[in-house]
Amino acid sequence: MKIWQADFYRSPLRDAAGQVLWELLICDATRSFEYEASCPQSAANSSWVAEQLELAGGEKLPDIIQVFRPQSLSLIEAAGRNLGINVQPNRRTFALKQWLQEKQYPLALEKPPPAPLPENLWGEQWRFASLPANDVETRFSDRPIPHLHMPEFLKPMNIGLASTVPIPGVVIYGGRQSLPLARWLHQARPVALNYISGAPDGLVLEAGLVDRWIVATFEDPEVTAAAKMYEQRKQLSRGLHFLLVQPDDSGMTYSGFWLLRTED
């Protein structure tokens, strides 16, 4: 499968007349393939992007284009539709971000303040948990879980974790809302679940490209201590953690499981 990472955004550069330029950057995950082109802002549209994609691809267009910048997504999606290319929003375009850093282009994205989860989806209770790295894949990979997100690059073995390293996580007991909550989370595309200290303290889910959601708030000192331990374990697990949604604590049925990793 041929996968590209792409960005199309205003460049810090200007043309000879001083006009703003938009720059298209395309690469693959290893940067063995790179393509760049620019145009004046007046020509920055999906038709121009589609033409460049065809020029970059030659006889073989990509199957997937990953885009991390919200402002780039709609134009690249429109170009992709015209060419039959699946365009996917994805924060983890590491090769492309490295290229942008080398060019000293701004990478920071404006993120909205976190919003509360929809009230009709919230579960009955939740808790912090941990699993040995060896158990993460064996416990969940073969179970009939409706919403399972365990990409190869996030499996503990593939990021160099020993089998005994504890992987921290959060378990939500959803009761009757377990499956609707898991379905909503699947659509939101979870990325990381972080403890944020404050008044009150909270758990904030990073999702999609820039979305942020308040999963829980708490003021109990014991819960805060557990949250701090959760963050300490994330450091030991190289940022790897999990989110598990299940109806109850019987362990018989799971509604959703996501392997997550704190962004670099």
From TrEMBL:
Domain spans labelled RNA-binding protein Tab2/Atab2 C-terminal: 106-261
Domain RNA-binding protein Tab2-like N-terminal: 3-103
GO molecular function, one term: RNA binding
PANTHER family, per database record: PROTEIN TAB2 HOMOLOG, CHLOROPLASTIC, PTHR34556
The protein, known as: DUF1092 family protein
